[in-house]
Amino acid sequence: MSSRPYDSALRTEQALLTRARIIDAARRLLLHHGTTGLTIAGLATAADVSPQTIYNAVGGRSAVIKAVYDVSLAGDDEPVAMIDRPEFKAMSDAPDAATLLRHYAHLGRLIADRVAPILAVVLTRSDDASRALATTVEDERHRGNATTIGYLDTRFGLPMPAAAATDVLWVLTAPETYDRLVRQRGWTSDAYEKWLADAMIAALTTPGPTTNMPT
Fold first, then answer.
1. What does residue 89 show for φ and ψ, rounded to 5 degrees?
2. What's 14's domain CATH number?
3. Cα 188 versus chain centre, distance
4. 203 and 122 assigned to the same domain
């Protein structure tokens, strides 16, 4: 019997382990030295791999930084889209808008807990890699907010145009808000989650003035 399937599976597992080791080392370097202190040569030493292995497993410096963020965002490196994860499924089973938003606030809190240390470093830097990641993060976050608003609107309706509701959600879930309340002001993550849920429910389920809001 051929050993090729076994060999292929073993190579795949080894590649995933190598990638995980590289990303873990990159995270440590980012937290201690920022984006400017993360070099391919330094990362190769920290992860005990060759620079070419980093390019093969993850990519260049910008790709490495984005991979660290993505793994922090999801909580793992599994190829499962955020929308297919249990937290989103809980939202899809919500019986009303308030419950859906409380599930969304819980998801937002979990994500913020994981990515806050990375973003606290990135958002305070002005180098090209930091600016590029910050732009990507905000674009991805806005698209995710739009998806949630679309789902909320389809199931329960909205008290304002969807575009305005998306912008409201985008502002409320901003990482800077979490950083100010939790890291700078000493709120607990539980307190942040409750505040976020209450703020989203008040803004997105209560009829109010919509004058001059975008459509």
1. -65, -35
2. 1.10.10.60
3. 19
4. yes
